[in-house]
Amino acid sequence: MKTIDYYRGKSVLITGGSSGIGFAIANALVEMDAKIILLARDYEHLKIAKFSILEKHPEAKVKIVPVDVLDVDRMEVIYNKFMRNHPVPDILINCAGVARPGYVEEIPPEVFHWTMNIDYHGTVNTIKLILPGMLERGTGHIINVSSIAGVIGIFGYTAYCGAKFAVKGFSDALRSEMKPKGIRVSVLFPPDTETPQFEWEQQFKPSETKAISGTAKPISPDFVAQHTLKAAARGKYAIAPGIEAKIMYLLGTRLGDLIYPVMDFLVRSASKNKK
Questions:
Q1: 146, 147, 171, 213: which is the annotated catalytic residue?
Q2: 274 annotated active-site
Q3: pLDDT tens, 70-110?
Q4: Residues 182 and 138: beta-carbon distance below 8 Å
Q5: Of 50, 160, 168, 171, which is the active-site residue?
Q6: Can you give the CATH number for the domain in which 29 is found?
Q7: Annotation marks residue 205 as catalytic
Q8: Which stretches does DSSP call E strand in 132-239?
C-alpha cells in the first residue's frame, strides 16, 4: 500500500500538534488528504498552527483542541463532546513532550516529575481516552514518540531518558496486547531534531552533552514526519529516522553491555575538550 493511500480520508489526532514534529506530521498528512485534529495546551499556538496549514492548503480539514494532556477530567469532557459529532480517530499520534537537560545533581526534583508527567503520563492519558473506541471498532493505529534517548542513556538527560525509556517500555507492552485485537502500535525514536523544544534545551545543556551531540547535525522535523508516516504505513513498529538514528538504535538495542564503554569513551572525550 502506498503511504498516501494509508492516510487518505483517515482521522488523525496529534498531541503536541502545534509545533515541532507534531506540526510537521500534520502538514504532511493534510497533503495526503487526512483529517487532522491538533491537540495542545496553548490555544493561541493552535490557532496559529491551523492558520498556517490552511494558508497552504485551504481545503484541508483541520480542527483544534486546546487542552492539557495532564488534565484527565478536562480531556474526557472535551473528547466526549467532540465524539457527539465525530467518529473515533483512526490514528493517534502522541507527540506532546518536553526535555530539560542538566547535571543530575542540579536538576530540581520537580523537573523529573514534570518531564515524566508530560512525556509518559500524557501519552498514557491520551491512549486511555481513545483506545476504548478503537477497540470497539476493531481498528486503529497508535504512534508514540520516544527518542534515541529512550534506548541509550545520554549524558545530561537523566530526566528525559527516564521518561522516554518509559514510553518505549509502555509501547512494547501495548504492542503485544493490541496486535491480537487489530490495533497497530508504532514507536518513534528521533535523534536531535530542529524544533522549538530543541532550541529551548540549549541553555541548560552541560558542556559534555553539547560536545557529544555536536558531532551530529540535527535533522529537520519535515524529514522525521515523512519517514515516520512512510514507515508506520508499512506497519513498522520501531521507527528510527535517518542513518545516524538507525545506528544509535541498533547500538542501544543490540550491543547489550558493550554500549557502556562506547558512551564512556564519548563522555571522556567531551570532558577533555571541556578542560
A1: 146
A2: no
A3: 999 999 999 989 888 889 999 999 999 999 999 999 999 99
A4: yes
A5: 160
A6: 3.40.50.720
A7: no
A8: 140-145, 183-188, 238-239
